[in-house]
């Protein structure tokens, strides 16, 4: 299923208006610091892909608020570098490194098992790791990597850590999706993009759309935990520089900084429970507010039956059945 033309048009117009730096500057005039908890001491916040870009900025902001921060990174050296940087920038000694490759279900299972062994609660899980690829790459199970990386965090790590999330007072799961996900109807029967011709940007949009649906499905299946998906806007990060160099250089206008792009992630992680609408569980957030996951007449919703097939196919890719 290719892009929805109506969705792409609306995405382009709203993107030019609000996803970049100017949009953040306008939206942030309404942000109130009093909605945030001032001290996250004693809370465990896990951030996948916390060594660069938005993940690094999120980890630093949460460490400044005294959270105990756990980075889940695939590369030990890059992870250690990030721990050093956050420790210094946030003046915190509560930064921990865990190694896992989010494109490998086996690696994610290993990390989750070691976490559960530690008996620590998880207050906030931020599924941030993600990448847009130029050509189709597969993991050792033969599954396409940009989709699998999104699904192993959003589905597998989340389900495996549910026992630890339920130990927390006010547990939250934040899935870092993208406005790009708004441009497609998810192809639930070809998550791996083995039937469609491969276009890295389009497959990325499917992966990000999948995260929105999974956030909603989790919120329905497990209402005692808060699940959110979100769009950071367009931010200048190493990932964007590598995948979209022209865009990084400002082809569509000035981009947000990593700190500005991570603002809504940090807000969802740290907002006071009574400052977020209880009915927003499962919703898609942009600039600290829930927004629609579907553009007008875009035809991007799933039927109930498609949602069920999505859930089953995700479980196959992650090699793990839950609910
Ligand atoms: N920047 C934007 O404008 C924008 C817009 C919309 C959505 N997003 C989303 O925001 C998230 C962060 O993006 P970013 O722009 O900050 O990208 P980035 O600069 O490339 O950072 C991505 C992070 O994810 C890690 N990662 C990627 N694949 C991984 C894997 N298989 N296992 C473990 N870690 C992995 C990377 O680790 P390495 O350093 O080892 O590669 C890096 O730490 C992504 O989910 C992206 O889709 C970003």
Biggest sheet, in brief? 8 strands, mixed
Ligands and ions found: NADP nicotinamide-adenine-dinucleotide phosphate
Radius of gyration: 18 Å
Number of strands: 8
What order do the strands of the largest sheet run in, or round the barrel if closed?
3-2-1-4-5-6-7-8
Structural class: alpha/beta
What spatial form do the alpha-carbon principal axes imply?
globular
Mean pLDDT: 96
Unreliable stretches (pLDDT < 50, length at least 5) are none
Q: Figure out the total of helices.
A: 13
Write the H/E string, N to C.
HHEHEHEHEHHEHEHHHHEEH
What percentage of residues falls in helices of 4 or more residues?
A: 40-55%
Straight-line N-to-C gap: 28 Å
What fraction of the residues are assigned to beta strands by DSSP? 5-15%
What can you tell me about this protein's structure?
- With 323 residues, the protein is of the alpha/beta class.
- It has helices at residues 5-19, 21-27, 53-64, 76-89, 105-118, 145-160, 162-165, 200-221, 238-243, 245-248, 258-261, 263-270, 304-318; strands spanning 44-48, 68-73, 95-99, 124-127, 172-176, 226-231, 284-286, 289-291.
- An 8-stranded mixed β-sheet has the order 3-2-1-4-5-6-7-8, with helices on both faces.
- It contains 13 helices and 8 strands.
- β5 (172-176), α8 and β6 form a beta-alpha-beta unit.
- NADP nicotinamide-adenine-dinucleotide phosphate binds next to α3 and α9.
